[in-house]
Amino acid sequence: MAAERDLTIQRFRFRNVGTTGRAQIGKDGWCCDTLEPPRKFCIPAGVYLAYGQDFPDGLSGGGMGTKAYELLDVPGLSHAQINQAQIDTAWAGDVGMGLYFNLRGLIALGEGFDILRPPDIKFRPQLALLHSRAILASFMRQTNGFAITVHIIDP
């Protein structure tokens, strides 16, 4: 049974345009949609401890940052984060296949999906996760930035 300090991410589908899923705190708590890179770049399914941290915001230039989570002891990965996209809409396509990618971490939180054209016009429309910044901020309020246990489950 999931505790209130547990976040469960249930992945639904692996695709070249990104891995979709749903995140939920506890058994019946706060929930949102998730978008991750294609399977070969995803955090392996498993259970991880995660801590809230301040991450530099490369776009602000003024030292302001984003509060987000970093997962610890992820096999083969460092800086595995639950974070927002570079803008409010997240794309997680396989860049090796010519698809757009703008995640700051490896798991983006948001609400709702759509097929949208990325801001760089050389890319075709592809799957996008909406409201990334607002949903990450809501998640951080729900958890107060405290340590959480993250359960990642493959389809």
Task: Describe this protein with a few key phrases.
two-stranded antiparallel sheet; 1 helix; mainly beta; 155 residues
Describe this structure as you would to a colleague.
This protein is mainly β and 155 residues long. The chain has one domain (6-153). It has one helix and ten strands. It has one helix at residues 132-143, and strands spanning 6-13, 19-25, 31-36, 46-56, 65-71, 80-83, 107-110, 113-116, 126-129, 148-153. Strands 1-2-3-7-6-5-4-10 form an eight-stranded mixed beta barrel. It has a two-stranded antiparallel sheet with strand order 8-9. The longest helix has 12 residues, at 132-143. It is globular. Residues 59-63 have low confidence and may be disordered.
Q: Outline the biggest β-sheet.
A: 8 strands, mixed, barrel
Element string (H = helix, E = strand)? EEEEEEEEEHE
Q: Over the alpha carbons, how many angstroms does the gyration radius reach? A: 15 Å
Average pLDDT figure: 89
Structural class: mainly beta
Percentage of residues in DSSP E strands: 35-45%
Number of strands: 10
Report how far the terminal alpha carbons are from each other.
19 Å
- As laid out across the biggest beta sheet, the strand order is 1-2-3-7-6-5-4-10
The backbone outline, from C-alpha atoms, is globular
Uncertain ranges? 59-63
What's the number of structural domains? 1
Binned, the helix content reads: under 10%
**DSSP helix count?**
1
